[in-house]
Amino acid sequence: MKSSISSLPRIPDDIIIEILTRLPVKSLVRFCCVSKFWQNLITKNRVFIHSQLQNSVNNLSGFSNVLLLNSDEWPSHCTCHENPDIQPQKLAEEVMRASNNLPEVYRLIFRQGKFTLAGCCNGIICLIKYCINCPSRDEKFVVYLCNPALHQFRALPPGNFQALSYISRTSLCLFFDQVSDDYKVVRITPGCNFWLVDIYSISNNSWKPFSSEIVPPWSQPQYLWERPVVYNGSAYWLGCCIENWRSYILNVLDLFQERIGEIVIPDGVQHPHLDFFQGSLAIIGWISTRKKGLWVMKEDSRTAAAGGGGGGGITWTKQLVLPSAITFYKPIRTVGVLFTEKYLMASFEGTVISYDFKNQKVEDQNGVILDGSKRHEYVVADYVPSLFSVIPPPLAEEEFSHT
Fold first, then answer.
1. Residue 6 in 3-state DSSP?
2. Who's near 144: CB < 8 A, 6+ residues apart?
3. What percentage of residues in the chain have a pLDDT greater than 70?
4. Neighbouring residues of 201: CB distance < 8 A, sequence distance ≥ 6
5. Cα 357–58–127 angle (5° rounding)?
6. Where are the domains of the chain?
7. Helix H segments across 208-281?
8. Which residue among 96, 119, 261, 313 is buried most deeply as judged by most CB within 10 Å?
9. What pLDDT is attached to residue 49?
10. What pLDDT, in 10s, does the model give residues 2-41?
11. Would you report the helix, strand and coil content of the chain in percent, each value rounded to 5?
């Protein structure tokens, strides 16, 4: 028997690695105990981790929906008598339970409440807890990162702006920095005539504030219309002028050069929403009482090469108009960030449908029913399990040893 085993040809390491990149995350996590080499490959080799994620996305065959429950309490009503980590951890565990019966990639439908969804990027979920009545300033605004597939969950350090009285107006977004190969959280806090910005880095486990306050180029104060998104190294977010609620501004903040500008949005667009479409930044909004349109942002190549970010050289191209027959539905999300090009909507009764841009078809979402009276509280994110850790590098190996 020994001679027959020893005579078997040895499989080259590169072939083994290629096979492993095509396996689901839950299998790879179990394989960490095979050998030290496999553990380091699966938990630390960034090329391997990126390849595994890309294979999961490339092999996407379909979507399933996961409805995540959340506390009904809003910030003005919640207290801190319970463990503040319990609810986000339960949500992460719910994602894990769903992944046992669903495809590798699926759509999270999350109802905002005591906790809000700040972003979902490559398997990492960012949650925010607001608690206006909490006595401790560190408890009023807490940011969580979790990777359900790795059973990882942690609260981030509070950072430098925690003592400010207007922290409740803070907005965040999660993004992947390709330059530093790191996941980061951008926190934007509006003041009276300026913005305070700091960025959290997983690799450094710390918040780094911008060198100075960001003074907007406009004179009118504004409210954040919705949370920011990051595109090509800049943070974009829509603001609504306080003095004119029908006037919207698209802010653009260069995260590397620390400068801010504004971009004029398409004429006549009301109640705009910022998202992605076919890899580009897009705005979708009402163009009449019955129709919605979608515009894709184009940036002049010369402006981009010169380190654009101030809004110059920007044009908008109308890609499509949603049929008036379906615009009576209340949208809970527009276009999928990574995987789909579908407009998700909920009726007054809470029934969820989607409009397929490519095929121009309306599709039922497998009988998903929301609370129709509170459908505006729902957000949606595309989720794919990944091996990217939310634990800073010095602690990552210890965390994996307990999974």
1. helix
2. 85, 88, 126, 127, 128, 129, 153, 154, 155, 156
3. 65
4. 180, 182, 183, 184, 208
5. 75
6. 1-59, 60-400
7. none
8. 119
9. 97
10. 555 556 678 888 999 999 999 989 899 999 999 999 999 9
11. 20, 35, 40
Q: How far from the centroid of its chain's Cα atoms is residue 62's Cα? A: 20
Instruction: List, in sequence order, the alpha helices (H) in 166-213.
Output: none
Instruction: Domain 60-400: give its CATH code.
Output: 2.120.10
Q: How many CA atoms lie within 13 A of 158 on its CB side?
A: 13
pTM score of the predicted model = 0.82
Separation CA 99–CA 106 (nearest Å):
9
DSSP 266: P
pLDDT digits (tens, 9 = 90+) for 197-213: 889 999 999 999 887 77
Rounded mean pLDDT, 353-380: 74
Residue 185 token pair: 């959280």
Residue of 312, 306, 315, 307 whose CA lies nearest to 283: 315
Distance spanning both ends of the chain, measured CA to CA? 35
**Sequence letter at residue 322:** L
